[in-house]
Design goal:
The chain is of the alpha+beta class. It has 9 helices and 9 strands. It folds into 2 domains: 135 residues, Jelly Rolls (Sandwich), CATH 2.60.120; 110 residues, Arc Repressor Mutant, subunit A (Orthogonal Bundle), CATH 1.10.10.60. It is globular.
Length: 250
Amino acid sequence: MPETRQEDSGAGWVPHGFQLEPHLHTDGQLVYAAFGAFATTTDRGTWVAPANRVTWTPPGFRHSHRFYGRTDVRLVVIPAALCAALLPYPSVFAVSALLREALLALTDRAEARPGAYDRLRAVVIDELAVTPEQSLHLPEPHDDRLRTVTDLLHAEPGRNATLTELGRAAGASERTLSRMFHTELGMSFHRWRTILRIHHALVHLAEGRSVTDTAMACGWSNPSSFIEAFTAVVGQTPGRYQADLVASGN
């Protein structure tokens, strides 16, 4: 697929389910949802960004986007010459108050004075350079047996089958699959499934589902265990996340 060059940053509302098919850029790309949520997918896996995260895709990485709920999308282009200050691989960062305002200013209004955009973009780069990566990254496997298991869970994230039960469909033992989750995906089966469920929970919450309904749909046995897992991964409770979405949309 040919590379494309991005000339401008910008903003726009997109509907639920809108997708941008896989493509490349010669510059770096920051995508921020001021309202809503979206997923960025590369050959390294999928990153989900709720309204308190921004995704970073360096030049040359083939990627696609899918948006969940009506989403206020902000796109900021980082020229290739400036990308060395940021991570050399796709990632997700927490959005501080300063970073949010800089992203909004870059995409909300016309440049008031010559060089203003360059100065604001420098602030964004400085903020990202010192912000710890907080990735909602879901790596995807290459091994066919492991992919069989992950495909089953993608299709039904609330499924509570054990790894032994899933292994029967994949033709692999629980021990083999457990080892492969660690060696190929860098995390345990339980952790991978939790991140997958959090991805789906973010979508449900963005669509307006209640915390209880979201917990049940995504496979948690009770709301309290869901709240605990969501808070540990996202950094805020699902109720607070949903309230912030509503406030951002007003």
